[in-house]
Structure formats: structure tokens, C-alpha cells
Specification:
Blueprint (H helix, E strand, L loop, with lengths): L4 H10 L7 H8 L3 H13 L19 E9 L4 H13 L3 E6 L6 E7 L2 H13 L4 E8 L19
Helix pairs in contact: 2-3
Length: 158
């Protein structure tokens, strides 16, 4: 179902703060709180809103190391790639995993409390996998921007 300007305006606000009251959103977009709640319910049911979650500070929880890891696989097809995807989904230190084009086959965003834990992750999850040809690690020095916000055109052009 296509999204209208109200859906887009609601989502623009809601994705930044899911705790906003429906009245606040409704006042901003020109709908009643009940209409906002109905639309949010429909957007959840249709899968436009995939999940609602809290954004936590890794540093506050002792996760001081962020690594961006480019993984090169020997075999990228079918079952081999599916097996690697499943393995990364099970690893709690893997925050994000993308199958990509270019020099690497997979990009991982990995959070750990220290380099020793990261080293253990690489040995268990990457070096022990016979399908991993190589990997390159980039250690983040600073978190400049972290967001899962999706750019939303509220004028209906997207």
C-alpha cells in the first residue's frame, strides 16, 4: 500500500522518538490522536515499522570498541553465504551485517568491550570459518553519527 503524506509525516517524527504521544504527532501533522494511532497500527501490520527499540549507549554498557570488518569469502553462493549469514546473526557482538558488492563480500559492525574480546571473536567467528578467505578490520576512533533513521520525503516524492 502506498504511503500518503500523513503516513510520511507521522513516520518522520515517530522514527526519531517512539515515545511521542499521538496527540503531539497529530497536532504536528494535522490529524486526531486516534487517526495517528490507527495509522501507526496499520504501518506496523504492513511491515513499514519493522521494530521499535531503545537506542543504548555502547560506552555506557562497557562496549568501548567498535570495529567495521570487511570480510572476503571463498564461496559466495547459496548455502555457503546463507550459513555465514546465520552464523553472524547468532553472534551477539555483531550489531549489523551487510552482504555487499565491491572488494568485500560482507561488512560487519562489531561491538566489544576490549581488543582481547574482539580478537576472540575473530578467532571463533572468522578464522575458524573455512569459507572466510580474509578480513580487514577498521577500528572506529570516534562515533560521529549513529542512526537508523530513514530519510523520508514528506512531500510525497519518494
Amino acid at each position: 500500500m502506498p504511503l500518503d503524506r500523513f503516513d510520511r509525516a507521522i513516520l518522520e517524527r515517530y522514527q526519531r522518538d517512539t515515545q511521542l504521544p499521538a496527540k503531539t504527532i497529530g497536532d504536528a501533522v494535522g490529524l486526531s490522536p486516534a487517526a495517528v494511532q490507527r495509522r501507526l497500527k496499520r504501518l506496523r501490520e504492513e511491515g513499514v515499522i519493522e521494530r521499535e527499540c531503545a537506542v543504548l549507549s555502547p560506552k555506557a554498557l562497557g562496549m568501548t570498541i567498535t570495529c567495521i570488518v570487511a570480510v572476503d569469502l571463498d564461496r559466495e553462493g547459496g548455502e555457503d553465504l546463507d550459513r555465514f549469514r546465520r552464523a553472524m546473526q547468532r553472534r551477539p557482538e555483531v550489531q549489523q551485517c551487510y552482504v555487499v558488492t565491491g572488494q568485500a563480500d560482507v561488512i560487519l559492525l562489531v561491538l566489544t568491550p576490549d581488543m582481547e574480546t574482539y580478537d576472540a571473536f575473530t578467532r571463533e567467528a572468522l578464522m575458524a570459518d573455512a569459507n572466510v578467505r580474509s578480513f580487514i578490520t577498521h577500528v572506529a576512533l570516534e562515533r560521529v553519527k549513529v542512526s537508523l533513521d530513514v530519510p523520508i520525503a514528506t512531500d510525497g516524492n519518494r
